[in-house]
Specification:
alpha+beta, three-stranded antiparallel β-sheet
Length: 93
């Protein structure tokens, strides 16, 4: 049904649960048009809760509208190719 409604606009990703320092990180590995993107997130009880950032975690993108699924797909579609995270960080919303 999603292919019928969304066609090529469907966001494909595989989610991995990665334990680190007492937390479980959700790591999304995107596919298709967004194949260069890997995003990680952690659920905290509040925004001031302390946690150890893993060495493999990069730039903080919380609340960055460029990294919402819809914006990711639009930016890559407009470029006509998958974009790197560095390119997304310099993209205008």
């Amino acid at each position: 049904m999603l292919n019928t409604v969304c066609g090529e606009r469907c966001v494909e990703k595989t989610r991995h649960s990665v334990p680190h320092a007492g937390f479980i990180w959700a790591v999304d590995v995107y596919e298709g048009q967004l194949a260069t993107i890997v995003l990680a997130e952690i659920e905290l009880s509040d925004e001031k809760q302390a946690f150890e950032k893993p060495d493999w975690a990069g730039t903080e993108i919380t609340n960055d509208p460029r990294f919402h699924n819809r914006a990711l797909f639009r930016l890559c579609t407009d470029a006509g190719r998958p974009l790197t995270v560095a390119e997304l960080l310099t993209a205008a919303t």
